[in-house]
Design brief:
This protein has 186 residues and is α+β, with helices and mostly antiparallel strands. The longest helix is centred in the middle third of the chain and has 14 residues. The two termini are 27 Å apart.
């Protein structure tokens, strides 16, 4: 049994390809497609843009977080949050889990930054609305384990969302991988 089947909810199918040719094509689109910005995302502590990437044959909505738009933090080196976002996706994928949307590091209109596949969710469906639902117990356990592995210092309830078909996704991984223990997870 793979870690994904062992720790995640078996009936959940994430809204992006996770393996094979289609996954490679999506990552290439995120990393190389023409990036256009649609506007700033509200309530973000750093500059976070909703955008679109396209290559003439495919388009995807994305979240773009330029390194230049990171607010300095006393305990995280300047310019590293976007790289941590990408590293979190790589670790999640390597573990066989799909709750971190595909994320790449690339150049964009405001310089280098992370570009993550935008996932349409109901903003009113977050950790605190489904944490006691037994259907999500295994996914939430996997997410807690992921936060321990990555030393996530900023897992808030609003960073743990649910898609329309019931998949749990985790966003905003910029405060992971600190050299000191800083675990904070819901």
């Amino acid at each position: 049994m793979t870690p994904k089947r062992m720790l995640a909810d078996a009936d959940c199918v994430v809204p992006w390809p996770s393996d094979g040719t289609e996954a490679a094509r999506l990552l290439r689109l995120l990393g190389e497609g023409e990036l256009t910005l649609q506007g700033l995302m509200p309530w973000s502590s750093n500059y976070t843009f909703l955008g679109r990437v396209g290559d003439g044959t495919a388009t995807q909505e994305v979240i773009y977080k330029p390194i230049r738009g990171e607010r300095p933090l006393w305990d995280f080196p300047k310019g590293t949050l976007a790289k941590r976002e990408v590293a979190a996706f790589v670790v999640c994928h390597a573990l066989g889990w799909d709750f971190v949307p595909p994320t790449v590091l690339r150049s964009g209109p405001h310089g280098r930054g992370s570009v993550q596949l935008y996932v349409d969710v109901d903003a009113d469906e977050h950790f605190f609305t489904f944490r006691d639902d037994p259907r999500y117990q295994r996914s939430l356990q996997a997410l807690a384990l992921f936060d321990i592995i990555t030393n996530n210092a900023d897992r808030k309830g609003g960073h743990c969302l649910r898609t329309g078909d019931g998949c749990i996704i985790a966003i905003d991984q910029g405060l992971c991988f600190h050299v000191e223990p800083k675990l904070r997870t819901v």
